Structures are given as structure tokens and as C-alpha cells.
Known about the structure:
The protein is of the alpha+beta class. It is built from 4 helices and 4 strands; from the N terminus they run H-H-E-E-H-E-E-H. Helix 2 (8-35) packs parallel to helix 4.
Amino acid sequence: AAYLAQGLFAENLPRLRSVYGQRAKALARALSLRLGHRIEFSAPGGGMFVWGRVPGVDTAEWLKAAIERNVLLVPGAAFYAQEADNATFRLSFASQDEAGIAIGVSRLEDALRSL
């Protein structure tokens, strides 16, 4: 509450938007470059996640292979109230800088290739 009352959020918002916007673009670029032939996704217009699909792949299996490579994704099935699409996934770009995003996507590519 004190942070908001002091106006610090408003003061930092432009910087936060810039940082997270750059990360979102970096993730979208890396996904297009490394996995664009295997996955479907939309570049985010907001938020801190990229949602996508890997046709023909159970992303719970992709997650297992990804964990072996020290990277995570969230299978999208966890977000469905009914009839989950097991080919969907969610990736966050909030906690990694652009270099970390590139490394993570490379590991995701390797994990997907192993399936």
C-alpha cells in the first residue's frame, strides 16, 4: 500500500512495460526462429505469458523432457475447465532476461526434438 501511495508504481510503470515488452518480443522471436515449424502461438499483447500449441504432442510429456534440460513450461491442460487440449502450453517471460530466454527456448527445442 505504501508503494502505491508514494506513487512508485506509476513512476516505475514505463520502465516495467519496456522491460517486459522486450522480453515478450525476445520470446516470440526465439520461438519463431527455433520452433516456428513445430508450434503455433500468438505473440502476447499484454500479460507475462505466451500461449501456444504443439500439434500432435502431449505437452505433459514435453514438460518431462524439458525438466531434464533444466527448463520449464506449463502444460495448458491445467487451465481448462472441461475437455483439455493436451497439445497446449504456456511459457512465462517474466523472470528471464533476453539471454536467458534464448537459452530456455534452445532447451525447449532440444526437449521437443527428443520426443
